Amino acid sequence: MATKFFEKNRKERLDEIVKFAKLTSEERQILEENGGIGFDQADKMVENAIGTFSFPLGIATNFFVNDKEYLVPMVIEEPSVIAAASKAAKIAKINGGFRMKNEESYSIGQIQLVNIRDKDAMQNVLSHSKEILDLANTKSSTLSKMGKGAKELSCKQIITPSGAMLIVELLIDVGDAMGANVTNTMCEGISSLVEKITGGKALLRILSNYSTRRIVSGSAIFDKDEVGGEQIVDNIILAFEFADNDQYRAVTHNKGILNGIIAAANSTGQDTRAIEAAAHAYAAKSGKYRSLTQWSKDKNGNLVGKIELPLSVGIVGGIINVHPTAKVCAKILKVASASELACVIAAVGLAQNFSAIRALASEGIQKGHMKLHARNIAAAAGATPEQIDAIASKMVQEGKISINRARELVGS
Ligand code: NAD
User: Fold this and answer.
1) Is the pLDDT reported for residue 364 higher than 90?
2) Which atom of ligand 1 is nearest to the CA of 176?
3) Ligand 1 mean position, distance from CA 337 (Å)
């Protein structure tokens, strides 16, 4: 499926996607229209709306995650990312693709309690856990019916310049949703009871985006010959060690991982700010900002990549059920749960990282990137669709990629 997808024209690509995901003619039409939402919908989504803003939607091919084939819709403005993910996935496929796991979908809600005078406040909260959890669960009949909802309660004390505060944390199995709203609702719903139990004042009652109980992890093996030989494998490991031991490099390294994760998350309407905030915090969990991936060699000299990060995503709720393109993208992905979606998105992050450090540790990224960049410059200079490739190639050949040179070539 999806062989030589990049050589096909738009119609052929759409034909293939429609067949793969069994899209209806209405769903195909949504992909054919630009952007998915009109002004009326935008006006209901945000304040002071004046229009909509479209981004490219592409398909990453070759993904095998936990033995299942995926075509991954990606929404991103940056060239090279979709090609890089597809190329990496093709190499990973040789050794079975990506092995990913996501064992729990617990969101964390926090209640900040101030003015606590009772030294037994923490103990009192814990001994009333059942009563608090039961009250929280009355706030979502949907989750309760599914056997999900508030499951655990924990407490911690933090010391601040204004004194000690008690932080009560509610762990909620949010199933297939991101769960932000239900978490906030439950936190607000239990705060009076927690105030009564502690004698303190509940101030903030809000979800933590540091979703450490929604960890996704996994690995893939990249064949050493396909990677480019032993030397490149060794160079990739050195490149990883640079990132893992230097935060200036690590931020860029992780940004590359997020190129894949955010583009895949965007296509299904996820809250990408939440994903990024959690990813960066997790990268710094040891007290030092490090790589979200790890790279090593197996006994055969093949390259082994591993990724681990928190991923709070949903297949219900938020804009997922509202944005028509996000809905179609979810159908293309064929994911049956938030957990499966998290596995695919993290696999894209690992694939992206492989391609970025492989390029950096061999010929450098500019060679491939500049070709695509040159096309954008040519388009910006006013080249017609027929002129773009020729002008881009000429600029790459000359080693002079600039808007001025592109304008000269458009005019010549
Ligand atoms: P939502 O409010 O639409 O809630 C999802 C609801 O779907 C659940 O409450 C549940 O009742 C129902 N549901 C049906 N089937 C389900 C299933 N199988 N599993 C789980 N729930 C099921 O969406 P949400 O996920 O609570 O919130 C996501 C949105 O909230 C995002 O757009 C996000 O940007 C926004 N948000 C984020 C923050 C934050 O990140 N700090 C804070 C507030 C809001």
Assistant:
1) no
2) 19
3) 14
